[in-house]
Specification:
The chain is of the alpha+beta class and 102 residues long. It contains one helix and seven strands; from the N terminus they run αβββββββ.
């Protein structure tokens, strides 16, 4: 019985990693503007961000999704869309999502 529980945990863990590491659609991808960085952005906790004015957010970067990080609502000012004629947007949810739209 214990072995099957461990196997289920292992399979679930592998599937969770595969799903979370999926690439980002080029239409939705953003990149940091010149001179910008997320090095000052703390990771989100289980209950969100410590600062109530920040959003717990996944950023759809051109090389993949970021881990959930705490950002302010002006995050799109630090980003640009990979494809031209698209707009950066912050979508509600937990974690929220930052990606490009038409």
């Amino acid at each position: 019985m214990a072995l099957s529980r461990r196997m289920r945990s292992l399979v679930f863990s592998v599937l969770a990693v595969c799903v979370s590491s999926c690439g980002v659609d080029e239409d939705e991808a953003v990149r940091l503007r010149e001179g910008e960085s997320f090095s000052d952005a703390p990771y989100c906790g289980s209950f969100g961000c410590v600062n109530p004015y920040q959003f717990c957010t996944e950023v759809f970067l051109e090389f993949g999704r970021s881990p959930p990080i705490c950002v302010f609502d002006d995050v799109c000012e630090r980003l640009e869309c990979v494809k031209s004629n698209r707009t950066c947007a912050l979508f509600d949810g937990f974690p929220a999502q930052v990606k490009c739209i038409d």
